[in-house]
Design a protein that fits this description.
Elements: H1 16-55, E1 57-62, E2 65-70, H2 74-80, H3 83-115, H4 121-133, H5 136-147, H6 153-160, H7 174-202, H8 206-214, H9 219-230, H10 232-247, H11 251-256, H12 268-278, H13 282-315
Antiparallel strand pairs: 1-2
Helix pairs in contact: 1-13, 2-13, 3-7, 3-10, 4-7, 7-10, 8-9, 10-13, 12-13
Length: 316
Amino acid sequence: MAMSRTETWSVTEPSPRDKSLLDSQRRTGYGMLLPMGIVIAAVTLFPILYSVWMSLNDVQLTSSGFSLSFTGLSNYHAIVSSGLFWHSVWFTVYYAVVTVVLELFFGMLIALAINGVRRLKDVSLVIMLIPWSLITVISAQMWAYIYNGVYGVLNAILQALHLIGAPVTWLGTPSLAIIAMMVADIWKTTPFVVIILLAGLQMIPDEYYEAAYMDGANRWHAFWHVTFPLLRGSIALAGLFRILQAFGVFDLPFVLTNGGPGTATESLAILGYETLFQNLHFGTGTAIAVATVLMVLVVCLVFLSAFRSLVESEGA
């Protein structure tokens, strides 16, 4: 029996009963999600909106709590006119850029090394994860002992190697304090980058490398033309998460330097904390927090836009 080469598929409209059943199931699903949506709005959306509202008011403490007096953008004008705010912005941006770039660089090297290990790969990964598993406050206190100018381990090692003649106060001068804090942060958070990049490396098929080597490529060519293009998504993800974390850095400088010496290592988070909880300027403090969030969003959008442009240009 001959069969036609083309077939006509007919799409039947659902009956009114089926539509009613689908609508009922949809309403049931929305109803089950509603309690969780209310909880999420209560613990996330409401505090954010209320913080924005507080930043537009002059907040005064009273015997019964506090009172709000709408002042518009006066709090934002106050922080924009403050040299201390712009110093904190400069330090936070500088700190985020340097630490994220170095963490991506060292994270790539370590991920490639672990991915190329045939034996004891799991042991290498566990050892590498030890810094990341430590609570930041504990690791910051540990680095404070290492950098101590009187009994610090770093001075003892450098003096034993005759690299310095006298103990150095690593946290006593602005430039050394910034470098010391960056070293502590890179040591702690590079394993996070390694995990993301290692997961991306393990998803690249070995056949791609075999084809590259058959075409005469060396290891550098294979990395640049195979590994790096296929790892761009993982690099962007790791960089995005680290930018978010670096802009909100608080516990490390708070324990290690307390924003000092002077205001050399005072990040936006520490400035907001001091304004809110030490000086009790709630309106100005929430304005600093809101401004920080806006800057983080802008930086992330610029980062993603630049990365997308790079991928599109390489693809073209």
